[in-house]
Amino acid sequence: MNNDGSKKIAYNVGGTVLGALLAGLAIFGIVQVQSGAEMPQENQQVINYNS
């Protein structure tokens, strides 16, 4: 029983750590994409405004 309980705790902790890492990578990736996509959007807005 004790071994099963410790295994469950280990899996829960491992899953939480992996989930947090994946979430951090996903957020970082989204921020990178948005920051890279802001430049063309700003240029397009200027072009549309001037024309």
Tell me about this structure:
The chain has one helix at residues 2-50. The protein is mostly helical and 51 residues long. The N and C termini lie far apart (74 Å).
The description of the largest β-sheet is: none
What's the total count of β strands? 0
Number of helices: 1
The radius of gyration is 22 Å
Apparent shape: rod-shaped
Order of helices and strands: H
Structural class: mainly alpha
Measured as a percent range, the helix fraction is over 70%
Average residue-wise pLDDT: 78
Question: Gap between N and C termini, in Å?
Answer: 74 Å
Low-confidence stretches: none
How much of the sequence lies in strands comes to: under 5%
Keywords:
mainly alpha; 51 residues
How would you briefly describe this protein structure?
The protein has 51 residues and is mostly helical. It is built from 1 helix and no strands. 0% of the residues are buried.
Describe the secondary-structure layout.
Elements: H1 2-50
